[in-house]
Every structure is written in structure tokens, then in C-alpha cells.
Amino acid sequence: MLLTRRHFLAATAAVSAVGLFSFVASKKAEQYWLVSAATDNKNQHFVCAIDLQGNEVSRIALPARGHDAINIEGKPGRAIVFARRPGLYAFEVDFISGQVVHHIRPEQGYHFYGHGVLSTKRNTLLTSENNYDTGNGFIVERDASNYQIINRYPSGGIGPHQIALMSDDETLVIANGGIKTHPEQPRKKLNLDSMKPNLSYLDLVSGKITEQHQLDNPQLSIRHLGVSAKDKVIAGLQYQGVRTDLVPLAVSHIQGSALKYLKAPKQQWRSMNQYTASICVDDNNALVAISCPRADMITYWSLDNDSFLGTERLSDGAGLAYTDKLFASSGKGQIAELAKSSNSSSMLPFSFEHLRWDNHLLAMKIT
Hints:
- Helix content is about 5%, strand content about 45%.
- With about 375 residues, it is mainly beta.
- The protein is globular.
């Protein structure tokens, strides 16, 4: 069933009338909880927090499927949760109390793409959004104190998906996936024959795109990002072409240089089934993890030289998060602590058989 804006507003009003379902278990003095959107076996949607012992400690109902979540600096136990594209909500959630604190809505004619970032220096929330009448992508900037829109910038392309801030907190890197969508056909890709994905950099001070880079294959959609402490960008790709094509699925980039494909044997690229989901950068170990849920694997790469290091098996593994350990979630209800090297074994996963975790996982600060 199509979730129209009218249906969505009715659903959120109904949720508000009865109070969001939530429960909170005893709070433990831990540094992080793991947060992910999830769907249960009745097709009900939630965002959940899991402690590092594998206990579900908070659950909040969502009116539609969620996607990514981000930490809020200075607010331990809180995160902003984004709807999956074409999304009509983002919530600021207090997982300790189990309450939705703010409901953030796109303006009429826009929808969210499931991702956003907070700029501490500017005290603003930035979200990737689609003007679905024109099909053009925008970065929308809101005051982080009240979530009122203060700026809107062209993203430099169609279908901006994940965005990330560089270390100056004023340069935004944008994965313009190149795929046109519309809420009346929520998951249909409308322009696969003419898509032009790119990686763009937006200067938030001037509001201008300062760099833009395209790949040699226009059907490699640039989707997800990881940024190192030294501003090296890793981008994960999803291929929209012929299913038998052999294509690389990740690139690295440093501002002022060209895009570079990560280095792997052809068979490794083939085994990833033309699809990547989340990216996690572990600066302490100069390691990059990239999830490939359609291939049931997590892949490891060198942050220093872009070389392929190995894989770890996790059925439908998609979400990735790093504390001082690397964690992954799966669409089959598992959350696992992963090995940081393909030469050792990970622990047995926590299993939540009644839940299907979405594609992203957040290590949320609670202290």
C-alpha cells in the first residue's frame, strides 16, 4: 500500500493519541547502546536500543520503516532516527526515557532519503532530501535547537543519499546516487537509463559545490559513506546494470584528487553481488568494513592503501557500528561483535528472532 502524506499524518496522529509504545529496562552504566530500526514478524516498525550484553533496553514504535540514526552531541542517550526513503519523518528520540522528543517533517513536496548529520559548529541538522516535483536533490539545513529550516542547498545531483561532514565541520560530502524516485511509486527507480551519480563536496559557508566527481560507469550508484579522521572518504556503490556484469563496488577519495576504486581480485567483486550497504571506518586499526547483505558477508579493507583484506560471514549482514569494537546487524535478527581481522573468529551473535534489523546500526553514546 502506498504511504501517502495524508496516510502518514493520520498514522502519526494515531500513534500520538495513544502514546508511543515503548519500554525501558534497567539502565546500566555503559558507554554505548547499539541502535537500529527494525521490523517485527507482524510488519510493525520500531527503533530499538540494545546494550552491549545483548539486552533490548528500549523500543519505540515508528509509523513507517526506519533507516539510519545519528548521535546528538551533548545529549547522551538521544539520537535522531530517519525514515527510509521516501521518508516523511525524522524523530529525535530519548532512548533512556523511551520518548520521542521532536518530530521533524519535510516540507510539502520533499521527502527524506534516510540520512542526515549534525554540525556542532553551526548547531544545525543537515538532511538529504528530494524535491519530487523536479527530481532534484537538496541538502536542507535546520536549526538543531528547534528543527526549523534555515537553508536549502542544491546537492549537485539527483538522489542524494548518505551525507557526512569533514573534520572542519563546514564541508559536507554528498553521495548523489543518481536515482530519481517519487512517493507515488515509492521504491521504483525512474531513470536508470540516464542516471548520473556523483560524489560532491558542499561548502556550507558559501552554499556552493566546491568539488564534484563522477565514475566511469554511470550505473554505479554512490550510496553510503565513511570518513576517516584524516578526511579520507570511502564510498560504497550499488550497481543498477546487468546482473551478470562484473563491477567494483567501493571507491576512496581525498579532496583535490581523483576517485580511486578499492583494490580487490575480480572474484571478490563478483562475490559481493553488485551491492554494498553500510561502511564503518576504524581509524585506530586503519581498517574499513563494508557490508554486503546480498552476499551474506562483511568485507575488510586497508584504510591506508585501499587493499582488500578479507571477509567475515554474516547472513544478510548490513548495519555496522564501531565503539572500541566492531559490531554488525543483520536482516535475520542478529547483532554480532565482529573480528577486526579475517584471521580470527567473531563471537556468537545476539539473536532477536522476532526482529529484522534495517541496513544501518548506530553506536549511541549514553555517558
